[in-house]
Write a structure and sequence with these properties.
Radius of gyration: 22 Å
Number of helices: 8
Structural class: mainly alpha
Order of helices and strands: HHHHHHHH
Strand content: under 5%
Number of strands: 0
Largest sheet: none
Low-confidence stretches: none
Length: 175
């Protein structure tokens, strides 16, 4: 997944407006403009589309962590220059204070069955023999599950009841 796509999905899932996005970047000691955010969120085929560098997404995720959990004492964690899906997943887990059972429940909402052991492989160091790379489809499903958790779809409006014709079926017109 591209950084732009992840940024778009997170913005939609949490219903962040431009002001909130700017505030999240500011929490991570980064200054961005409304125009930059707008260009990162545009569709790939738009003329004003700008590719969102990994370091920008990492900065946004760090701001999200600070927003949800508070600023830690001492120096802040610098944003990663190169992001992987595993790092994005870890940062979201930290920001939302999710436990393994919470992650499994979120995945179950989008009909993905995962065990704790399979999940823990995503959070291991890349050199570990049980490390598993988080693929785009898995991260996409996780973000969909987050969206269903934080921004549930509105219930469809009930259809108005149609009154039946008290005289039975209508007769076809005769010419």
């Amino acid at each position: 997944m591209t950084s732009n796509d992840i940024l778009r999905r997170l913005r939609y899932a949490f219903d962040f407006d431009d002001s909130k996005m700017i505030a999240l970047f500011a929490l991570a000691d980064s200054e961005v403009t409304r125009a930059e955010i707008s260009d990162w969120l545009k569709q790939d085929d738009d003329l004003d589309f700008q590719e969102c560098p990994d370091i920008v997404l990492a900065t946004f995720l760090n701001g999200l962590i600070i927003d949800k959990r508070g600023k830690k004492d001492g120096p802040q964690h610098p944003p990663e220059e190169k992001l992987t899906n595993n790092i994005v997943l870890r940062k979201l887990k930290i920001a939302l204070e999710l436990k393994d059972d919470d992650l499994i429940e979120i995945l179950a909402r989008v009909d993905i069955k995962f065990s704790r052991h399979e999940l823990s492989a995503f959070f291991r160091k890349p050199g570990h023999k049980h490390y598993r790379q988080c693929l785009d489809q898995f991260l996409r499903n996780f973000l969909d599950g987050l969206q269903s958790d934080h921004r549930p779809e509105p219930r469809p409006k009930p259809k108005p009841k149609v009154k039946e014709n008290p005289y039975g079926k209508t007769k076809p017109k005769e010419d």
